[in-house]
Amino acid sequence: MWKYILKRIFYSILTIFFLIMLTFFMMQLLPGDPFVGDKAVDPVVLEELHAKYGLDKPVPEQFVRYVLNVCKGDLGIDLKTKRPITQTIAESFPISFELGIRSLIFASIMGFFLGVLAAVKRGTKWDTGAMLIALIGISVPSFIMGAILQYFLGFKLFQWTGVRVFPILGWNTEMSKLLPAFALSFGSMASISRLMRTSMLDVMSSDYIKTAKAKGLSRMKIIWRHGVRNAVLPVVTFLGPQAAALLTGAFVVENIFNIPGLGKFFVIGVQNNNYTMITGTTLFYGAFLVVANLIVDLLYGVIDPRVKLAGGKE
């Protein structure tokens, strides 16, 4: 068991290191200069700025310095606002996290029940309706879904009723948080429902389900006690990276709804060629995803009784 855990932790650390290396060297390939932008800067001043932030050093030396700083929890200074990147993350990420939590809860609950309903009612209009919703969710990007929700539930509903039920922009009230959370969760909900339906159909055709039917167990007991319990395991595995993706928010959705989350600062950093902001936020998002996958790997061995970790073997 401990060998399995240490092995997963080692692979996670190695993945984060390669992420640091890849992100850093890709930033070196970006054209332009983070201090120039659209304005003319005196060459002497530009040289002093490069020296101040260590950009005049050889690239290998910059990389070693960056890795050492990351190990100390220092992601650098925002080249535009002169604020620490960690401070920006600490202030903005809770908003993205809350958006992700809301989206994850909605996607999990609705995807789970739509998948079970489609499997239990296979071949009926319920199955067709549930899979139609899943097809729309997979086909329509989150930013398109966000715009549709803004138009119909934000703008048109206000015209029809004269009451602003769903605010189009902002993150101030409970109602203003519903549309962006739904827009972000719709694609994940569709994927979860399709996976749950496939897994449920596979489980319901198993021999032990036939045995349960032969024993005279009620249909509801067979579905919930034997079917859902085993069918949900692949969904749990899928929720690992999916949860990380949702919990880190969505750049475009946050911009559409004017949400002051971390995605907003990432987009601004890309537009301004802000090296430290891009590398800092990318590394944070990547590390979050790696840790989420690590937790799922460890939990899956506990949740799934078919996974045996005894003797350090997977």
Order of helices and strands: HHHHHHHHHHHH
Based on secondary structure, the structural category is mainly alpha
How would you characterize the largest beta sheet? none
Low-confidence stretches: 309-314
C-alpha geometry:
flat
Explain what this protein looks like in three dimensions.
The chain is mainly alpha-helical and 314 residues long. It has helices at residues 2-28, 43-52, 59-71, 85-120, 125-139, 142-161, 178-204, 207-214, 219-247, 251-256, 262-271, 275-303. The chain starts with a helix and ends in an 11-residue tail after the last helix.
SSE layout and pairings?
Elements: H1 2-28, H2 43-52, H3 59-71, H4 85-120, H5 125-139, H6 142-161, H7 178-204, H8 207-214, H9 219-247, H10 251-256, H11 262-271, H12 275-303
Task: Give a short synopsis of this structure.
By secondary structure, the chain is an all-alpha fold. It has helices at residues 2-28, 43-52, 59-71, 85-120, 125-139, 142-161, 178-204, 207-214, 219-247, 251-256, 262-271, 275-303.
Key terms for this structure?
314 residues; mainly alpha; 73% helix; flat; disordered C terminus
